[in-house]
């Protein structure tokens, strides 16, 4: 009976995560397309098509995979601006400008087939070679916060690895997700003659996600979503890559370049209205530089709320009865939140800042909106201890602003997060090259519960060992 109650609870939470209160039935700026171009009525039909495509695709040479990836990049490249607007129109979250940056990052910075070079070891005992080969059909679930970006990022990584993909769309972003999958298939078919490398269904639902996770022809799972969805994947019995929750603290010690720290934190916290899971969610600062940091943050576009009663009002307004952020405010502009709270302001602030205790709900909750609490501490050790505490054991992302090598090294070790950023905005960790920053590979699926961290094409391959004990060592002959 207890197990049944747990199942029912997970199902209820999962339903909440996959339902978007702000969902709009209005069409995106593109025609949805005819059923069949990668889109199917049922999960069984979609997965059967992906499996059939995989049986052909798995035998293709690496040059064919590279041709597929080039078709995706060439196809979507001219449409970045309209895709960004379509995401915003459907989800109502973030900003169009930020989505353009994220889409370009996903399209052009995601690692592809080039990272799959084999590893070879030779010696007197012959040769050992390791190669990276496909899993098969990968089942993926994407969030409404990064719907089209996740389709691109996952497709490039998984197809580069020789897999095909079933993509479970978030109901709150089903229109743009469907458009992406239909057009991806169109671009790939025109370039290569192969169909259904990426598939989905016309009407996504909680039932379809669960059916996909347990389908016998799905060989691996990649889930970007809330803890209940990730938990379902981890108990599915399949190889699972799970991208879970985060609550990234930004530490600022007494040695920090305060002007740079303020610039980077406000820029990154306000980027796409804070819906990136890597974005700074709270600041933990040495009290000796707190006032200077707050003043600089205001210069960089932040709005300071001084009245604790107003802060508590905003907390009650933006956090639901279930303890989760209200979808009404997720990804909304700072000015929208201030307007709803009845707070007067001038200009157009991008982030709302305020002082708070470390146990305040706006500190301990991953808010996904441009609200940035500031917690002050008497010294570095208390800063680090507080940062570990409020990060919540998610092992996701943290950052530090410091000129002390000792502090940087100790914080990086102690935080034990998948991503750790030093003296920079945390959006660099996703590969975003905005405003002169660039961090290399795009990373939109950050697997913290399952431990892979920032995923690449290699994440979605099997590492296979090939032994040849009789030869292939050019340095010697006799054994």
Automatic annotation (TrEMBL):
Superkingdom to which the source organism belongs: Bacteria
GO molecular function terms listed in the Swiss-Prot or TrEMBL record: acetaldehyde dehydrogenase (acetylating) activity
Keyword tags: NAD, Oxidoreductase
Pfam families: Aldedh (PF00171)
Cross-referenced PANTHER family: ALDEHYDE DEHYDROGENASE-RELATED
Domain (Aldehyde dehydrogenase): residue spans on this chain: 41-428
SUPFAM superfamilies noted in UniProt: ALDH-like
Protein name: Aldehyde dehydrogenase family protein
């Amino acid at each position: 009976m207890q197990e049944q109650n747990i199942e029912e609870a997970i199902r209820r939470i999962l339903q909440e995560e996959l339902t978007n209160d702000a969902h709009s039935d209005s069409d995106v700026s593109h025609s949805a397309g005819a059923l069949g171009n990668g889109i199917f009525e049922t999960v069984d039909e979609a997965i059967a098509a992906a499996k059939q495509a995989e049986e052909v695709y798995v035998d293709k040479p690496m040059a064919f995979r590279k041709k597929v990836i080039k078709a995706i990049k060439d196809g979507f490249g001219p449409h970045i601006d309209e895709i960004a607007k379509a995401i915003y129109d459907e989800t109502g979250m973030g900003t169009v400008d930020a989505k353009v940056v994220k889409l370009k990052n996903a399209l052009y910075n995601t690692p592809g087939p080039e990272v799959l070079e084999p590893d070879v070891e030779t010696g007197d005992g012959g040769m050992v070679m390791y190669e990276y080969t496909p899993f098969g059909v990968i089942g993926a679930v994407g969030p409404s916060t990064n719907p089209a970006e996740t389709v691109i990022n996952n497709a490039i990584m998984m197809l580069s690895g020789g897999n095909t993909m079933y993509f479970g769309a978030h109901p709150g972003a089903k229109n743009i997700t469907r458009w992406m999958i239909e057009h991806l298939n169109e671009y790939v078919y025109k370039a290569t003659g192969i169909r259904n490398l990426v598939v989905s269904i016309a009407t996504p639902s909680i039932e379809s996600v669960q059916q996909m996770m347990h389908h016998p022809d799905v060989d691996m799972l990649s889930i970007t979503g809330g803890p209940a969805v990730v938990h379902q994947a981890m108990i599915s019995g399949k190889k699972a890559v799970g991208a879970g929750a985060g609550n990234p603290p930004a530490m600022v010690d007494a040695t920090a370049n305060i002007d740079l720290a303020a610039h980077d934190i406000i820029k990154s916290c306000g980027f796409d209205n804070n819906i990136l899971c890597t974005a700074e969610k709270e600041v933990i600062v040495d009290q000796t530089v707190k006032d200077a940091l707050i003043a600089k943050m205001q210069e960089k576009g932040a709005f300071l709320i001084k009245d604790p009663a107003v802060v508590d009002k905003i907390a009650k307004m933006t956090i639901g009865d279930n303890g989760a952020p209200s979808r009404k405010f997720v990804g909304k502009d700072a000015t929208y939140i201030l307007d709803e709270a009845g707070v007067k302001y001038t200009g157009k602030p991008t982030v709302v800042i305020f002082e708070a205790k470390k146990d305040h709900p706006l500190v301990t909750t991953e808010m996904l909106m441009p609200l940035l609490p500031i917690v002050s501490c008497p010294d570095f050790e208390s800063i680090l201890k507080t940062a570990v505490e409020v990060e919540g054991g998610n092992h996701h992302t943290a950052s530090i602003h410091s000129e002390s090598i000792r502090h940087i090294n100790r914080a990086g070790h102690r935080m034990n997060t998948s991503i750790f950023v030093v003296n920079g905005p945390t959006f660099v960790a996703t590969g975003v090259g905005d405003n002169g920053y660039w961090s290399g590979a795009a990373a939109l699926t950050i697997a913290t519960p399952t431990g892979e961290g920032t995923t690449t094409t290699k994440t979605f391959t099997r590492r296979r060992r090939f032994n040849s004990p009789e030869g292939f060592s050019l340095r010697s002959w006799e054994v």
